[in-house]
Write a structure and sequence with these properties.
heterodimer, A: about 300 residues, Rossmann fold, 2 domains, seven-stranded parallel β-sheet, five-stranded parallel β-sheet, 8 helices, B: about 260 residues, 15 strands, about 30% strand, globular
Chain lengths: ~300, ~260
Amino acid sequence: MAGIWIYSEDTIIAQQSITLGKELAAAMQQPICALTINEQDAQSLIAAGADKVIVLKGNNSWPESYAAAIAAQAAQAQPDVLFIGGTLRGKDLAAKAAAALKVGLITDAQKVQFVDGALETERMLYGGLAVCTEVLGGMNVITIPPRAYDVPAQDASRSGEIVSVDVQADATMAVGNVCPIVRQGADISVAEKLVCVGRGVGKQEDMKLAEDLAAAMGAEICCTRSVAEDYHWLPNEAYVGLSGQKVKPVIYLSMGVSGQVQHVAGIRDSKLIVAIDTNENAPIFAAADYGIVGDLYQIVPLLTEAIKSKA
Amino acid sequence: MPTIIACYKWVLDEQDIKINPGNLDLDTSRAKSKISDYDRNAIEEAVLQGEKSGAEVASLTFGSGNAKQSLKDALSRGPAKAYWVNDDLANSADAFVTANVLAAALKKIGQYDVILCGEGASDTYAQQVGPRVATLLGIPAITFVSEMKIEGDKVVATRKIGDCTEEVTVPFPVVVTLLPEINKPRIPSLKQVLGAAKKPTTEWSVADLGLTAEETTAKNKVKSVKGFVMSRKNVIYKDGTPADKVASLVASLTKEGVL
């Protein structure tokens, strides 16, 4: 067994995983090998820290169709670990590759360490309520959430081997009609400031309260799952949580959000969490840095004015 | 007539799990079980597609003895029959083992055109059993589906993957994993609940499926499961007039430099 392998269909995310790979490479004394389907990016993966790049050349532009090809490469070379960028395309490919390799797959590892000669991972359980620490036995596939690590600085002086391999991509699926999702407003997953609307906001008209506060703060608006899925006040792309967006703003301010574990799982990387809710016992307050227990219909307009008058 | 099989997992309801504040151990002694939230969407979609296409709909689960009560719950949601791999192995199974068991059970069932799964289980949310099962059966998987229809012997599905959607067409048999937005699972009526008791169920143990020891052994060792604690400042303004509380909050946020 040898090597730390890294793959993502998105080269930026592959580079982020190389940051983790470099942390482990020293302890594991293993080289880093990146796999890519984007031939033109091979050199940038070397410059980011890969010792070797395998370019998979197939006749299919659909990234998921390379699962079997990646598994075949790994079956031959037997790396210690195969990190896959945890986009949804990546997770699909990771599960198929792990099944083909008959190995374990750790989804969305939040921490990966090399302890006493074995890899150890941490991941969420029960919607974010608990953390499960596992000691990996043998080769595993691990998906790494996008933006969990910074992109390493490019070192143009690094050199490494670039190998091209012709592979057979899976052609059983006919894929068409690829449409970008047009976002109403900014991408909340990278927003610096967020105002989050929960079910404590009683009527759609009252979204105005959130809009005014967001405008005063220079924030984007997001919401809980039920506000998007049950009430359709905001598009599904705007809901934060385990099955929705994961956000990491400098400030996240919620109004009328009770703070179910699945929602808190999506905001836990926020630098500062602020909550406004009437229910003193709402779980959101345990997850908050600052909070006001009170009626959001009174508090939010006052807060909006106070922030405006500061500016 | 096509056959649709909805897979589900019988999980602890995370709302009932308490964390022991001292050692952060989980207290599951009062936790009730439920059909994993996202798998309820899978059962609902199977039934809806069955109503439209005339397909026969069955449910399939792998669980220990306490999953017996799940059969009635699943059947009251509409499937005509239920399959249950009843084995304590489920308590220690990882996704590798679960997928091996489900794939073997599907082979034993013998007939499957569309296999539906939730996008992930509400306990582990590992999002891998569906595509793993597909790979083991040597059939395609369409993951993260927000809309689907059956056209003849094909599934046409819309996937929603991050910043784009795409339409995928695949001939039977196929595994489809569903996003929760695809439907609203029904609340079974009393009549449906009573009717569920009369529907046929099939029970197997893992030994009936002819799997090897390797295929039924979890890959990794769970070292610990501990309650997650976020360390936050927890400065909560409760007392005073709304104006007082807002003034305190604005002062704090100003000090933090985030306004």
